[in-house]
Amino acid sequence: MSVLSDSQRMEKIVSLCKRRGFIFQSSEIYGGLNGLWDYGPLGVELKRNLKNYWWRVMVHERDDVVGMDGSILMNRAVWKASGHEDTFTDPMVDCRSCKARLRADQIVEKKGAKQCPVCGGKDLTEPRSFNLMFKTYVGATEDESSVTYLRPETAQAIFAQFKNVLDVSRKKLPFGIAQIGKAFRNEINPRNFTFRSREFEQMELEYFCRAEEGIKLLEYWKEERLKFYGNIGIARDKLHVLTVPDEERAFYSKGLTTSNMIFRSVDRSSKASLIGPTTICRSIKRPAANRSNISMRKRNRNSFRTWSSRALESIARCWL
Hints:
The protein is 30% helix and 22% strand. It is an alpha+beta fold. It has a domain at 1-72 and 153-184 and 200-287 and 301-320: Bira Bifunctional Protein, Domain 2 (BirA Bifunctional Protein, domain 2, 2-Layer Sandwich). A hairpin with an 8-residue loop joins strand 14 (257-262) and strand 15. Helix 1 runs antiparallel to helix 8. The two termini are 16 Å apart.
């Protein structure tokens, strides 16, 4: 039996997802748009099942978590105050030989010289900052007074509405606010199917507590998230838990743990981040392709559910 290369395996997964009705390239009949995807008949059911299960576990089955649904567009002052407008950037490098546009961490180094991973050329520009937020305008005029951004993450709405949620829910610390919603990031080089997209959904919990309880709750939520991934079919041996050292954490962070799912990818990256909980715990949803035990929403035909399960198992075999 021949062993598939990483690129062949990824192509096989993409092709299978399209044939089975899980995921389609956005705007495909007009040439497509890189980093954007449409979910088909089975894909939307899979995604909805995952979101509904997450919401039930995180909100409905707990007394210390409430939900909200913030708007995608917010006042520009929010993104200034959070630092996103000035610092939410990636270092970008251009290859003058093949015109490829790359993130700085994608540049390879051979024999002490930096090279383009696409063509091997050494004629590269110096890294420069590239803001990842999509800029837009609100209102009838397009000037600086009407600038805002498509949100790059869902957390800011939770922080901005914290006082209102606290007043109406009458919660006491510790408690959390959960949200599921779209986020947008103008990635320099989207790749690896849905793992680096320009439009995606986040399932996020911000959990608020007193400073002295932070480390204890960090460990609690880490175990809760690992338990959740096990319940949706991701084996524990496919998860890599990393405790981020002090020098790599933000100044306000007392502790940071990331949970990564190990998978095979086109550029041989071995892990994709699923969650990075701190004393404010964040859960990031990626479209999971290895759920073979999905319980599809009951329709009139059992064959629909059987076919869906088999398709998911086929994806899992390719992926893992």
